[in-house]
Amino acid sequence: MDKFTTHTGCVAPLRRSNVDTDQIIPAVYLKRVTKTGFEDGLFAEWREDEKFLLNQPEYANATILVTGTEFGTGSSREHAVWALKDYGFKAVIAPRFGDIFRGNSLKNGLLTVELPEAAVEELWLLAETHPESEITVDLVACEVRAGDRTWGFEFDEFLRWRMMEGLDDVALTLRDEDKIAGFESNRDAWRPRTLPVQV
Amino acid sequence: MSPTPHESEGTAPRTLAQKVWDAHVVRTGGQQPDLLYIDLHLLHEVTSPQAFDGLRQAGRKVRRTDLTIATEDHNTPTDNLFTIADPTSRKQIETLRANCEEFGVRIHSLGDENQGVVHVVGPQLGLTQPGMTVVCGDSHTSTHGAFGSIAFGIGTSEVEHVLATQTLPQAKPKFMAVTVNGSLPEGVSAKDLILKVISITGTGGGKGHIVEYRGQAIEELSMEGRMTVCNMSIEWGAKAGMIAPDEKTAAYVKGRAHAPKGEDWDAAVEYWSTLKTDEGAVFDKEIVIDAASLSPFVTWGTNPGQGVELSGNVPAPEDFADPIARTTAAGALEYMGLQAGTPMREIGVDVVFLGSCTNGRIEDLRTAAEVIKGRKVAEGVNMMVVPGSAKVREQAIAEGLDKVFIEAGADWRFAGCSMCLGMNPDQLTPGQRAASTSNRNFEGRQGKGGRTHLVSPAVAAATAVTGHLASPADL
């Protein structure tokens, strides 16, 4: 996973709330067996409308998506994160995210930051009036900075460390292999197994 | 010898969820989240290929093939069993088969009686039992919570993690209770109940919580009704939903292929009897609902929280105090092509979809068949009936339900996820309106430009007969 410390870039102001993962990438794009190349599926249905945000030239270089609350609810598809990343987004800011989406994003080096609605509104206005403005999302300081404005954000200390180091969860867990084996040796014998049975 | 995990805890009163959590902690403390052992990992073709690829790249194996099982559901055709027309769908299913072969994972493929929607198949095999941890790369894994298990959907990176380690690091959740007092009135189902809950909480109301559904109305639900309730926990943002196991749960599991047998059964049942929230255990949050106040419930908008009584009207954006809800409502009405104030019962539909992991089990088919028996699907309406698994389909045929649907003019299909998410050819066309027993009315979910009203199986069947949203009482 790529390390994430700090990122400075332009904002795409997506004035919508309840953007579920079906909107981020429709199911027809989920048939691939690769982990990359999902950029064409990002917001595919909305992008057919030439007035849609991402079709505006002033937001062509945006790398930070700022959106309304409940972003990424619904389906567990990690393809939603891959699509945002493949398109070029490095960070997403919203008042609140769907849990599975948030977990997926942080395992792929896409930073998701929760800021209050008032801060999101300010960032929207900034990007709508001055699309060329750059803002900074700083995971080291846990801050979002835009001009003379600074907002702090909360971030789980372990997840922050993992993201800043770009660490792979599987390797981290396998350091405790002895504990897993110990747990397994104590499991109840009647717990079901998937091996074929005679009925 | 160290005690088994569920005996090692203290005596402070605990919730059901806390007990199951505690019994699965492999590692706790320090800065890292708890590491939970996973008892059952379900796989399907859409969210697993990249996970298997990750294993291959790292030279890792599947740690516990005996706790892992796969089936084909999201992409499968429902008009025939063996021809997958779309080459990308076919490739995905072939990839799953090849991965299962390579890594030694049991798979139930098209043509097998245990092929079908993964959340129907687990309970059908008796693999879903009380007090387990169950995961799957699918958000509706919450279904399995109906047995008193902690069951939740995971992303593909987590699928890889479970394949490699049989564990998952998980931050401690909060605990919530939804208590439904009294009995559901005649004609009100589990689906109506959960749609009502989501309309109260909104799509994010359960965030970060494992929810325990309890109270008389929940106890009175059948196991399949309980699965419908738990299935939609994710639609209000909950981490998982669960229901304490009781005699109904044990009776449902007993005798299934993977149910414990003999002395194992006795040991299991003894443990299951401890799986209830202790007197005095504290929930972080509680919602209380009076079952007697409920009636058939349907959605009007583009998220599952945008629902209303079938007897009600399409709301106006101004009805919502919250500015965000108001804007969202206005957008939803536009997408749905609805006028505020229209009685829900006057909304005509083009398609009725009966199926999915929410409502594709045998009881759901029986309920709908009872309504539609001796009646006809309205002119201009296409009713599609998609059993949740091949076995549900066989059972329905054995009971003659297929004939009831076919004689009514409905389209009787093979098992799969089908139109719930339209990954296979079963899709709405732009502007088509559906009454669907599935779980999501998101824009474009059932096909590009399609408009979805979420309903119960009984309402779906009555709607098919009248051509507009209706309950059996209207017939």
TrEMBL record, chain A:
Question: Gene3D superfamilies from the entry?
Answer: Aconitase, domain 4
Instruction: Give the Aconitase A/isopropylmalate dehydratase small subunit swivel domain ranges.
Output: 1-117
Question: Record's SUPFAM superfamilies?
Answer: LeuD/IlvD-like
Where would you find the membrane-spanning parts of this chain?
Answer: none
Enzyme Commission number: 4.2.1.33
Q: Name one GO molecular function term.
A: 3-isopropylmalate dehydratase activity
Q: What class of enzyme is it?
A: lyase
> What pathway does the UniProt record associate with this protein?
Amino-acid biosynthesis; L-leucine biosynthesis; L-leucine from 3-methyl-2-oxobutanoate: step 2/4
Q: Which UniProt keywords apply?
A: Amino-acid biosynthesis, Branched-chain amino acid biosynthesis, Leucine biosynthesis, Lyase
Q: Which reaction does it catalyse?
A: (2R,3S)-3-isopropylmalate = (2S)-2-isopropylmalate
| Subunit structure of this chain's protein | Heterodimer of LeuC and LeuD.
Q: What does this protein do?
A: Catalyzes the isomerization between 2-isopropylmalate and 3-isopropylmalate, via the formation of 2-isopropylmaleate.
What PANTHER family has UniProt attached to this entry?
Answer: 3-ISOPROPYLMALATE DEHYDRATASE SMALL SUBUNIT, 3-ISOPROPYLMALATE DEHYDRATASE SMALL SUBUNIT 2-RELATED-RELATED
Q: Which NCBIfam families does the record cross-reference, listed alphabetically?
A: leuD, PRK01641.1
Q: Which family does it belong to?
A: Belongs to the LeuD family. LeuD type 1 subfamily.
The protein's name = 3-isopropylmalate dehydratase small subunit
Question: Which source organism?
Answer: Glycomyces niveus
UniProtKB/TrEMBL annotation, chain B:
This entry's comment on the bound cofactor is: Binds 1 [4Fe-4S] cluster per subunit.
- Name the EC number(s): 4.2.1.33
Supply one GO molecular-function term.
Answer: 3-isopropylmalate dehydratase activity
Q: Which UniProt keywords apply?
A: 4Fe-4S, Amino-acid biosynthesis, Branched-chain amino acid biosynthesis, Iron, Iron-sulfur, Leucine biosynthesis, Lyase, Metal-binding
* Name of a matching Pfam family: Aconitase
- Where do the segments described as Disordered lie? 429-451
Question: Know the name of this protein?
Answer: 3-isopropylmalate dehydratase large subunit
Gene that produces this protein: leuC
